[in-house]
Write a structure and sequence with these properties.
By secondary structure, the protein is an alpha/beta fold. The protein is about 35% helix and about 15% strand.
């Protein structure tokens, strides 16, 4: 995917959103109710990660690792890669992570779902805890994917707290990554 085709895709998605804007159900006008209802909605309550996606550990700083579950297209370097970061107390097995990963993979992306420190049963991998400002972990994962896997087209999506961290990192990177 070239920069031109990525821009065209973003413009297409933007046109679709403008043509059919999101209107919440009348019982879920408040955003916090939307968040809670999506968690407790039938069929999502007992979501299990049955994907069989291989696990990969990323060393994010000396003595600390994060666990990712990766799904690769054939010849991964020729496909864009989506890194997914969950929200507070979520994990790589959260229903929204699994659904997004599935759709992205079907659309031709490699998908890397990453657990934040101490989430998803990974307490033994890091002595420290995650927090909203911890962008170094995301930066370390991105750097390793570029350096070790030769991936050049990386996209980051985060949910709730994970989105906060992704946006914070984007501000830290500025135009730095785009120019490489």
């Amino acid at each position: 995917m070239t920069e031109t085709s990525a821009r065209a895709l973003i413009e297409k998605i933007n046109r679709r959103f403008k043509a059919r804007p999101f209107v919440p159900h009348r019982f879920f006008k408040q955003s916090d109710l939307q968040t809670l209802s999506s968690y407790f909605w039938p069929g999502r309550f007992r979501a299990r990660d049955l994907t069989g996606d291989p696990e990969r550990l990323f060393e994010v700083e000396p003595g600390s690792q994060v666990l990712a579950r990766c799904r690769w297209q054939a010849s991964p370097a020729s496909h864009p890669t989506l890194l997914l970061w969950h929200g507070m107390e979520g994990s790589t097995s959260s229903a929204y992570m699994l659904a997004t990963a599935h759709k992205a993979f079907q659309a031709g992306f490699n998908v890397v779902r990453v657990n934040a420190r101490n989430c998803g049963g990974t307490e033994h991998l890091s002595p420290g805890l995650y927090h909203a400002g911890l962008t170094g972990d995301l930066r370390a994962v991105i750097d390793e994917l570029i350096r070790c896997d030769g991936l050049t087209r990386l996209f980051v999506a985060g949910f709730s707290l994970g989105g906060n961290r992704a946006l914070k990192l984007a501000g830290e990177f500025g135009d730095e990554r785009r120019q490489k």
